[in-house]
Amino acid sequence: MRTLTEWTALAQDISFRAQAWIDGEFRPSISGDTFPAINPATEELLVDVASCDTPDIDAAVVAARRVFKAGDWSRAAPAERKRVLLKLADLLEQHADEFALIDTLDMGKTISEMTAIDVPDAIDCLRWTAECIDKVYGEIAPTKPSTLGLITRHPVGVVGAITPWNYPLLMAMWKLAPALAAGNSVVLKPSEKASLSCLRFAELARDAGLPNGVLNVVPGFGHTAGKALALHMDVDALAFTGSTRVAGMLMQYAGQSNLKRVWIEAGGKSPLIVFEDCQNIEAAARGAAGAIFTNQGEVCIAGSRLYVQNSIREPFIEALKRFAGKYQPGNPLDPKVRMGPMVDKAQLDTVNRYVQSAIDEGGRIEHGGLSMPEGKGFFPTPTIITETHQAMTCVREEIFGPVLAVAGFDTEEEAIALANDSIYGLGASVWTDNLSRAHRVAGAIESGMVWVNGWGEGDTTMPFGGVKGSGNGRDKSLHALDKYSELKSVWISL
Ligand code: NAD
């Protein structure tokens, strides 16, 4: 692992790609507009990024459709697509440190998380999905003997991907790997708060041999470039990761345009339930701290609601505070630092608003409090609030910051009811040594994912996604391919 001095030196030498990548080349936005990419740890300008809008999106969709129809990629043998994507995964691995550095500088995530999670997981997602694509078969239906019923899979066409800033490279990869492997063309609109790693990735895709126009990356704001992509009449599907509010807007845009499919991975307010029969309180407390403080709490599955059985509440909270103390915000380029700055001032202000609302609504600040960073950088204060109840704003709404709301419960039924009392249903974490209870509670919780005696475990082999206001469809695993392929039924009269 590199030292702080080495990462700092590398950061000084790095150069950014900041123009739109359309049809195999970098282009400024047609309007000439740009927006600044700011390092949230130093508040310094990294680079001015092309601020694209409808004409740029149109150009990208035209390129994507042209190559899709030509068939260079869409009708390439699956083994050929696998070969190119595996080469791309190798290139990404060769540039792993560069990608780790780009996202750390662009959005503030610690370099240790980038090198341990984001970059290796992105490589794994790409490699695993590429490996699968020449092993996916069609089906023959059990029709009557006078017919042959073939069920075949085909790429959807032009996929519009709209992604968030909290895992800039990784969230994009969860869309790009299955969409490209399945033979689609993609127009990716990364978050305006962190576009740089996706732009650099597009260049590597060209180097790996992806035909021009198959992958386009168009940076810009949501209400301009994002909306244009979502309303576009020649985009066949949208793959979205972001907030529940914007997800709803995309569904409306689809309804107002061509009924494109809308696949959503949205927000969360994930509960952690700790039962008194959990023997290893230390492990549970460490897990709970990691669940809310990892990546500054800017995690869709952040365990932001903690329900502890009342009989162990006091010792558990004491242990939790000890682990919380290990998350001291600092320079994200320092490999020893476990928490960086929030992505921008607006996100830090949002966190403060929620902490203040918790105080106003009767919560007790058990650890941390309002964030008042001295000097440069949008550094948050890791915070634990006790004496919370379900009506409080900090319990109901996604904060997307390092703020944990804690409440007690007496019975298993009560814990399940509290966990399910949310518009969201993304993840949940259950801590118990009772096997029957683990299965019972995991089955009863309304969420796409449940971790028993853990939190956040995941690799490409398991689907990721939620229910209720947290979305539809799934990223990762073979199930991700369902979003990016159409089934066709062909009847052959014999
Ligand atoms: P956001 O919804 O504000 O933005 C997401 C993307 O949508 C960005 O690229 C943005 O530019 C774009 N966008 C915004 N308005 C748009 C519009 N009107 N039309 C089209 N596009 C528009 O979300 P964010 O702040 O970037 O990310 C945080 C959210 O993402 C949180 O709610 C978090 O829970 C969620 N998230 C979910 C998952 C998951 O897998 N479920 C993973 C990561 C993040």
TrEMBL record:
PROSITE patterns linked: ALDEHYDE_DEHYDR_CYS (PS00070), ALDEHYDE_DEHYDR_GLU (PS00687)
GO MF assignments: aldehyde dehydrogenase (NAD+) activity
InterPro entries, per the entry: Ald_DH/histidinol_DH, Ald_DH_C, Ald_DH_CS_CYS, Ald_DH_CS_GLU, Ald_DH_N, Aldehyde_DH_dom
Gene3D superfamilies in alphabetical order: Aldehyde Dehydrogenase, Chain A, domain 1, Aldehyde Dehydrogenase, Chain A, domain 2
UniProtKB keywords: Oxidoreductase
Occurrences of domain Aldehyde dehydrogenase (ranges): 31-490
EC assignment: 1.2.1.3
Primary enzyme class: oxidoreductase
Keyword DNA-binding found: no
Active site per the UniProt annotation: E265
Family: Belongs to the aldehyde dehydrogenase family.
PANTHER family in UniProt: ALDEHYDE DEHYDROGENASE-RELATED
Name of this chain's protein: Aldehyde dehydrogenase
Species of origin: Marinobacterium lacunae
Upper lineage: Bacteria, Pseudomonadati, Pseudomonadota, Gammaproteobacteria, Oceanospirillales
